[in-house]
Please model this.
Amino acid sequence: MKNSINVEYVDKLLKEQFPKINNKVVQAMEYSLFGGGKRFRPLLLLATARAVAGRITKGAQHLACALECIHTYSLIHDDLPAMDNDDVRRGKRSCHMQYGEASAVLSGDALLNLAMEIVMDGPMGDAKYRQAARFLFKMSGICGMINGQSLDLFSVTSTLDDANAVALHKTGDLLRAAIVCGAYVGGATEDQIALFDEIAHNFGICYQVVDDLLDREKIEKSFLDVLSEQGCINYAQKLTDRVKELCDALPYDLDFLKHYADKNFTREY
Model:
């Protein structure tokens, strides 16, 4: 019988990997990691791995947990006063508001280190797993998500290419990690990996386009700096159609990806 890939399943995996000590930093880690997230990225990774391999591999479990730890650390640090200065995350006080800035910084650092520990405890003898692990940390590092944070903080968005770059790296690269890592540990070929990456590339940008439409009043960089509202809707439709076209080009049942693409596009503007 196949495991159901849902939030409860991901939470179970995460709790198995969570530190068994108790101090203020660990409490802050737990507060943020188990604070009501949708687990979208690990769900994507696990579902992609199962679509390719026909089962949830051990490597997929480890990478899914590591990815959620990385995502959560990024949110903790993103909320800090020196970054976006957000007091609320997922409907409750952000980590630094609840535990103080020092504990928030340390809990983010600890979650990133925990991600590495989880990955290293996985099937490192598997070459595909090692490729996936390298891709995960590349997409979360200075060539990926951190590059996107830097662009968001320190660059000017004056063209569609500028907006695409911020969206691809700040938001899209962890989605790329989810889909591509799942494909790797599922056993996809290199040619198939390239198609999965293109799917994730288009989906990641589209996700941010829709986010920008949903939050028209935000101050940070936005696709609405370079496109009209209707232009953003048209662009999101084009990206969604491309995701589904690429899914159909692969020899796997990727209806879940097409469903996510449609669900993203139809979020209320």
